[in-house]
Amino acid sequence: MDPNFEFKVRRWRKRRKACVVTVLLMMEMYMRRFPDRRVWIHHYIGRRAEQGAHNNLFLELRTENPDKYKRCLRMTPQMFDWLTEKVRPLIQKQDTHMRRSIPVDERLSVTLRHLATGETQESLSLLYRIGQSTISGIIKETCVAIYDVLKGTYLKFPSTAEEWTVVANDYGTRWNFHNCIGAMDGKHVLIEPPIQSGSLYYNYKDTFSIVLLAVVDAQLRFIYVDVGTNGRISDKGVWNKSSLRKKLDENSVKIPPPSPLPGINRPFPFIIVGDEGFTLTDSVLIPYPKEQLRNRHDRSIFNYRLSQARRCSENAFGVMSNRFQIFRAPLRYDPDSAKDIVNAVLCLHNLLRSDVEGRLMYTPPTILDREDEMTGHLVRGEWRDAPATGLQPIGQGGNRHGVNALILREQWTEYFNGVGAVP
């Protein structure tokens, strides 16, 4: 018999007792920290199928008050059903013996409600009777699915000369700005300070953000977006690093060759219009600065005509932030999830602007900037009365422009004050 047997037994018992005490202490600490985890599922959540918002409130609104339904989810019931079938293969979960999965239409409803109203996850948890951690996962997963199924059709970058010509013809018809293939603008999308990110997303406005750079067509649809650049980078650097800038420099965008403007035979290149936040180039046209407008009425006319076309990007961003009120405050997500949310909203915006019925519901005439037919003065759209604090404009770009770009702007000025003049 081992002479140390009794000693080993005593030592083993002491260790076992210490382990049991440790486990009990850990369980007690866990219960104090997470008191709600003492049950498998809360009773009020268990009654979700019978009393949850999606299966009661929204079902009633769908049949009894479609207008309220549209305001809650930003789309018609028919469009909601269509989108549900689109995202079903990507977000549908399997039922188990323990419990049934949350249906696809309910997952989509939660996400659209969050994007449309900016309602917090805690509030949505009580409204839909779904756990808050589950809500968080649903929103992130569904936003990725929405972007995946819609980007090929509703966030498509023009890839042929014919598609660019359609965009240019729209600008010529609607805004008397021919050979314009888009209005460009950029915004800082504010986010909560990411954990352990230092100053990577800290911008010069003393906020944390990711940058959204976009080009908008005359129908207020986004045709090019660059999302996710950290807010610390300079505003000029956002444009310089964008894929569009590279494609324009390499002439790989398949933009049509220069063509004459109405009334003249001299060809003008196709251009993108922007504000002072960008650099004047052969392919990007920006207004004259204020100090160069003194005693130059012709340049004021040019700035006015340019602002008409550039108003498309202002209205697109304004409508998007007004209708999707998640941008009313900084996004409470990490940068990657914030990027997914922005991409999903961009796709939904283009979807609603492309559908005839959805366009009228999504952007009634009063919400957009327009000109008074009698006076010609700008009538501010309703979106300007409720600015989104979660979106901030980018700052000023460089002021060193190429000689060719300056000459081109003067030629546009001459055209707008001559053959291309309008009442």
From TrEMBL:
<keyword id="KW-0540">Nuclease</keyword>
<dbReference type="GO" id="GO:0005634">
    <property type="term" value="C:nucleus"/>
</dbReference>
<comment type="similarity">
    <text>Belongs to the HARBI1 family.</text>
</comment>
<dbReference type="InterPro" id="IPR045249">
    <property type="entry name" value="HARBI1-like"/>
</dbReference>
<dbReference type="GO" id="GO:0004518">
    <property type="term" value="F:nuclease activity"/>
</dbReference>
<dbReference type="Pfam" id="PF13359">
    <property type="entry name" value="DDE_Tnp_4"/>
</dbReference>
<dbReference type="GO" id="GO:0046872">
    <property type="term" value="F:metal ion binding"/>
</dbReference>
<protein>
    <recommendedName>
        <fullName>DDE Tnp4 domain-containing protein</fullName>
    </recommendedName>
</protein>
<keyword id="KW-0378">Hydrolase</keyword>
<keyword id="KW-0539">Nucleus</keyword>
<dbReference type="GO" id="GO:0016787">
    <property type="term" value="F:hydrolase activity"/>
</dbReference>
<feature type="domain" description="DDE Tnp4">
    <location>
        <begin position="184"/>
        <end position="350"/>
    </location>
</feature>
<dbReference type="InterPro" id="IPR027806">
    <property type="entry name" value="HARBI1_dom"/>
</dbReference>
<keyword id="KW-0479">Metal-binding</keyword>
